[in-house]
């Protein structure tokens, strides 16, 4: 017979093992991105973190690291494969460094507007490209968020491609972003996102390009007095789960994660669209000059040859299929 004391010790050990087992069963994930805490992407990433903890009964928790705190965009893309980060937001141009056809969604004037972008997001073409990216990298795309139309800020009006000639413009550090400045005779300067404000302030570059909500969040309006509504890229952010995490998720958890990040992408998309509409007039009240009469047809014509030229990392057939989605 066991003594009461022996049984008590055994029960204590068993309880400790149960607690240790529960602790070891909980996994904390890292979600990294380069955007400010004030932006919708951070808001919805935090929402996703809450939902992951709730819907997995605490088996997974997620810490969100904004504002390049875990590295610039090229770093966090590499981190997915290395397992140093688990989930990221990234532009399709950066993902296109690993699987070229996926970059098509970030090409200049590839979309006629938001409805065209939405059709692409929900299309078989995008599903095929996302699967091609997964086959190449092992990483899984689980959401696509509307990032907004990219516009050029400078200290002068820009209405036609001729106004861009010789302009030194900062672009993200991914090859696809060279297509726009090259097509209009500007000089591209790839600079990490976190360094753009200082580059504008010191005159290292003459201009930069980003959507209106980003221009606000990064305070570029403080060092550039003119916002030119070129709308040259209808940009997306994809939410990507790295292969090391994706491969160890159960089928049930894969479904949970995918559902959560798709819902988060839809919420962020709505917020970005609302902000775009509001900021067109809000920037004027803040003292900015907003150039609305940009000749987009002239810009589109200048860029058209590039979309199926040697710089394209997608096929003509993929380009044609994407354009057909505008019909």
UniProtKB/TrEMBL annotation:
Principal subcellular localization: other
Keywords annotated in UniProt: Signal, Transport
GO CC terms in record: outer membrane-bounded periplasmic space
Superkingdom of source: Bacteria
Gene3D superfamilies listed in its UniProt record: Bacterial extracellular solute-binding protein, family 7
Keyword Ubl conjugation: no
Signal peptide: 1-25
Protein name: Sialic acid TRAP transporter substrate-binding protein SiaP
Organism: Marinimicrococcus flavescens
